[in-house]
Amino acid sequence: MADKLDKLLSDYFTGILDANIKLRRAELKYFSKHAPDENIGGGRKQNDYSNPVELDMIREEDDEMLSAWIMQKEIIETFFNITVEPQRTILYERYGHKKSWLAISLIVHANERTCQRWRDNFKNGIAGHLYSTLNGMSF
């Protein structure tokens, strides 16, 4: 499960998670799965109500993948915003720029093991909230 969490953090800090959310919304908007109208009775449809904005919103809310990605993004943003500056730098450099622990320790002026421990503390803090969204996801 740690591999999925590392992948998710990497996707968040590199912008892939945002791109996935935008792409999924576009897929839902333009490639909808509507069944063909099977009204062969010859009469008019009664109670025909069409509101495309509401239908788009319903389609987005019902999509499990999109909902999971949005929740993951919000959880990571919430925890990232309440962390202190050296930990933010560590997370951004490790997952956003893929730097080594030695390079990160030189940037934040801390021991490599201290940087890893700060990263582990962040991951442990978000892990319980994210595992419910990671179970059904494949990476």
Distance between the terminal alpha carbons, to the nearest Å?
Answer: 11 Å
Whole-number mean pLDDT: 86
Low-pLDDT parts are none
**What is the makeup of the main sheet?**
none
Helix content: over 70%
Output the radius of gyration. 21 Å
Number of strand segments: 0
The chain-level structural class is mainly alpha
Elements, N to C (H/E) = HHHHHHH
* Number of H- or I-type helical stretches: 7
What general outline do the C-alpha atoms trace?
A: elongated
Beta-strand content:
under 5%
**How many domain regions?**
1
InterPro entries: DUF722 (IPR007927), RinA (IPR006523)
Pfam family, one: DUF722
Protein name: DUF722 domain-containing protein
Organism: Weissella paramesenteroides
Detailed description of the structure:
By secondary structure, this protein is mainly alpha-helical. It has one domain. It is 72% helix and 0% strand. It contains seven helices and no strands. Helix 2 packs antiparallel against helix 4, helix 5 runs antiparallel to helix 6 and helix 6 packs across helix 7. The N and C termini lie close together (11 Å). This is DUF722 domain-containing protein. It comes from Weissella paramesenteroides.
Short description:
By secondary structure, this protein is mainly alpha-helical.
Main attributes of the structure:
single chain; mainly alpha
Give the SSE map.
Elements (H helix, E strand, L loop, with lengths): L1 H13 L1 H15 L21 H11 L1 H18 L3 H12 L4 H8 L3 H23 L5
Helix pairs in contact: 1-5, 2-4, 4-7, 5-6, 6-7
